Structure formats: C-alpha cells, structure tokens
Amino acid sequence: GEYESYLLAIPADLLAEIYSEYGARLLEQNVRTYLQARGKVNKGIQNTLKAEPEMFFAYNNGLTATASGVRIVKGEGDTDAISLIKNLQIVNGGQTTASMLYARDKDKVDLSKVFIQVKLSVISEDRVDEVVPKISRFANTQNRVSEADFFSNHPFHIRIEEFSRRISAPPKDGQFAQSKWFYERARGQYKDGQAYLSEAKRKQFLTEYPRQQMFTKTDLAKYEISFSGRPHIVSAGAQKNFISFAIDTAKIWEGDNTNFNEQWYKNVVAKAIIFKEVDKMVRDAKWYQGGYKANIVTYSLAWLSIYLKESKKSGIDFTTVWNAQTMSSELKSCFEKITEAISQKIQETPDNVKNVTEWCKKQACWASTKSLCISLPPDWIDSICKPNELIKEEKQGSKKIQKVDNEVSAEVLVFQLGEKWREIQNYAIANRLITPEQDLAISRILKGRAQTAVQTKLLMKILENVRNEGLEV
Hints:
Oligomer: single chain
Number of strands: 10
Number of helices: 22
C-alpha cells in the first residue's frame, strides 16, 4: 500500500559504527537521545551485552526504523539482503543503538555475537512528517516518554539550541572564564554530549556548560509562562504547562519567527537565573515551613511581572541580570518581600477548598493573588525595571537583526546548493511547481550571478515547494 515494511537483523558492530559516524543525526526523528546507562532498561542492556551477548537478540525488543527507500540484493544462500538505506532514522531504539557504541568504546565489549532485530518502514517523503511522529509515539515503550519530547524538532527549538551553543554568558564578578547555558532540546542531550569524552574533554565540557546552567524545554516553558503572568498554568504541572507554551510559541513563530532572537534568548537566560535564585531563596527562608515551594516561586515571578507592567508601565530589566549573571541586591530584596507575602496568600484557600496545591491551579487563585497589595520601596523599583518604551525599542531592534540573520542564512543555503539547483529546477518544471520568476532566479544562480533579496525569497519558496512534494535536497 502506502508503505513497505521489512523485518531484518543487523550486526551490533555495524550499528555501533553507524551511530559513531552520524550520532544524534540518526535519532533526529526519535523523541529523545540516549538516557545513559542509569535507568533499569539501559543497565539491563549493558549487562546482557557483557554476560550473554548471544542472547541479546532474544531479550531485546529491537529497533523501529524508517527510511525513504532501500535497495534489495541477493545475499548468501539466495536470501534477500539490504545493501542501501536512504534517510535512515531510528524512531524507537535510541537507547539500544547508543548502548552498542557505549559498550564497544567504553566497556570494550566484543559485539561480534550480538545481533539486533529491526522493523524498517519505508515511507514516501510526502508522508514522513505525518507518519513518523506517530510511529515514534506508539513504538516508544521501554522508557516513559513525556509529551514534551514530541516538540523537539520544531525550528524554534533548533534555533534556541543554536543560540545556546554559540552565545557565551558574561563572567560573574571575580571570575575570568566565560561559560554558556546549555539548552537541552531533546531529553538526554546534556549527558549524551559528554558520555564518550575523555576525562580531560569532559572537564572542558563541564567548564563550558556547567551543570547549573543546563535547562530543558519544560524548564523554558516554566520560565516563560511564569513571567507572562500565568502561574496557575505552571502549577497545573510540567506537561500541561508545556503544551500551553508549545501552542503559543508555534502561533508566534508562524506569524513572525524574528520574535525569537538573540536578545529574546538572553532574556530567557535571565529569567532562568531569577527563577533558580528565587527557588533557592524560598527554600532557605526562615519563614518557609516546607511545602508549596514551586507554587510560591511561580506566583511570585508572575506577581512582580504583572505589577510592573500594569502599575509602573515597565518590566524587569533582564539585560542587567544577563550582564551580571545574577540578581541585583534590590531585585533580591523585592523577592524576599514578595515571596513571603505570596506564601501566606495562596494558603488562604476558600472554605470549600482544602488542598492548596489544587487551589493554585485555579484561575480564581491567580485572580485573587494578582490583586495582592505588596509595598515595595520606589528606589528598589527604579533600580530593577526598564520602561515599556525601552523594552519595545529593544525588541524591534533585535527583530531587525534576526531578520538580517535569516536572510543571510538563506543566501548561504542558496550558494551551498550550487549545481543542485539544476535538479530542483527540472523537478519543479516536471511537477508544475514553478513560476516564471522562480525559473529565472534559478537560471541566474546556475550562471553564477548574484541574487537580490527578492530572488532569494523566490528560491527559498521553490525549495520549500519541491521538498513538500518529495524531492530530497
């Protein structure tokens, strides 16, 4: 019908070699990367490889993989064999795959007796985006998969990941070495990034990306939704909060992706710094008797954000936090006062509600808390905030820079494709996907002529069209 399916066995040595060469690219359609040999499943894999390698095929569930095409040849004894797989993706079995390389390179295990069963589905390019996520979702059973894992490959996350690998944070007072914040786009990336490093390289990795400067997709959602003034959604739990964040973010991205730029990323890191420090502040406060810490933190952040926005026509000066990589003494003083007041307020539940945690999930709780009057000294406010006019100017400037970055990236891609444009042109003409203006733009690039910004846009559009129709670019 619409897809072909093959059942096969693959030698563990070959699988380890493939993963060694392609790494996370092999798992891009997977919902997570290797979760290390710490969970019960992964420890079991390592134990079987060491103690009973010939039984691995019997004990392991194997892999679920996808491809856009295969080449079948005659193997030994007139059996069928696969000699080529196009666009191989392992959508379930990332743990097993990475375990092969881990066992071979780290534990020096002999994999010659180990084979893994594979169910390989060959799916046409035009149905990959529709079918592969379903295969990934339905096939993942070995480790529990959270909803957040299914938003990893959105361009938004790829851009934020790129920022986090490129942008260095200013050193704190008294420090000389710069570091970066590690954004974990797919679950397990942070551990996987250091799993196969030598001890010296691992120390270098941890210096560049300290543990306390790693944050995940669900962390990001928690920061953004808190500061946007929706703590009742954060209190509903990581998954519900992330889904809300994902829906909002996808809509904004669709409208204008330049909203997500370098300044936006720096502001997110500043929010992470504030969130983490307020969390520690509450934990160590003399008035804190235990319980509801997560609710106190998100409600406190939301209260200050909305208070500044509505009463002072301003917002928290995230640039100052980013530059210092910590909160100012005035901002700390504000939160010391706010958190204690918020703690008391959220525990004043209505007569018909006894559970504070459940009360914090209600819109009514936030409506009641938002109107809470907390007196903050004017000099504190002046020190911590930035007027809305400046925030708006900063946002517009950052969007313009991101727009230029997007245009440059498009121009680089147009240049990199080179002679590939001839194939794109022929395919587009044969499938009636091209306009005269786009045809002319491709002809110009094939003759080595420079492209205008308008022509680059035309080329990117035709590139999108042929990809959607199934041409591999």
